[in-house]
Specification:
- By secondary structure, the chain is α/β, with parallel strands linked by helices.
- The protein has a single domain (3-178), classed as Rossmann fold.
- It has helices spanning 3-21, 29-40, 63-69, 82-95, 126-132, 151-156; strands at residues 51-55, 74-78, 100-103, 117-121, 142-147, 163-169, 172-178.
- Helix 1 (3-21) crosses helix 2 (29-40) and helix 1 runs antiparallel to helix 4 (82-95).
- The longest helix is centred in the first third of the chain and has 19 residues, at 3-21.
- The radius of gyration is 16 Å and the shape is globular.
- The model has no long low-confidence stretch (mean pLDDT 92).
Length: 184
């Protein structure tokens, strides 16, 4: 199944589930396509990892979309809400995404070896995300956080040394933090 077909299949699955379970504010094909583009955009600017953890995946943005685009990357989707985790499991099986593992858990309670990349979209502020995932990173872990206009204010509250870039696309700000070290 080619990637564009997977995106279409995902779009119609999400529209169907969303009409019953209200998983996301994306209520039309155009809305979902815009979210797909938003999910993919920053990956052109970062080093591709082998293992990704996505926090609070919700309706699949960005991690389920990224898993469709990058089948050689292993994605772990951490989603605490039952209906969203159920949708993610169903969609990944229905689309045939062998590179996806869905974990129904809060990230603070999830245990794993460190990930190369941790992603999140609209979950929490940067400092809190770094704190919540300290046990899931090492000195080689990077972060890709899908943010809004207040990213500079959030960065002022981060009390560890970080090396970062910010990419802009429309109203979206993508914060790419490279190699957070727990010892700083």
């Amino acid at each position: 199944m080619d990637t564009s077909y997977k995106f279409k299949k995902f779009t119609y699955l999400l529209l169907e589930w969303n009409s019953i379970h209200n998983l996301t504010g994306a209520k039309s094909v155009d809305d979902i396509e815009a979210n797909i583009e938003d999910s993919l955009y920053p990956f052109r600017y970062i080093d591709l990892p082998e293992r990704v953890l996505d926090i609070g995946t919700g309706a699949g943005f960005p991690a389920l979309i990224l898993a469709m685009e990058y089948p050689d990357i292993e994605f772990t989707l951490c989603e605490p809400r039952n209906k969203r985790a159920s949708f993610l499991k169903f969609a990944s099986l229905d689309i045939g995404l062998d590179n996806v593992k869905v974990v129904k858990s809060r990230v603070e309670n999830f245990s794993s070896e460190p990930f190369e990349l941790i992603t999140s979209r609209a979950v929490s502020n940067t400092r809190r995300l770094l704190d919540m995932t300290e046990h899931l990173r090492d000195g080689n872990t990077s972060y890709l956080l899908y943010k809004g206009g207040d990213v500079e204010e959030e960065l002022k509250r981060v009390d560890i040394a970080i090396d970062f870039d910010i990419f802009n696309h429309g109203k979206r700000r993508y914060l790419y933090i490279k190699g957070v070290d727990n010892d700083t």
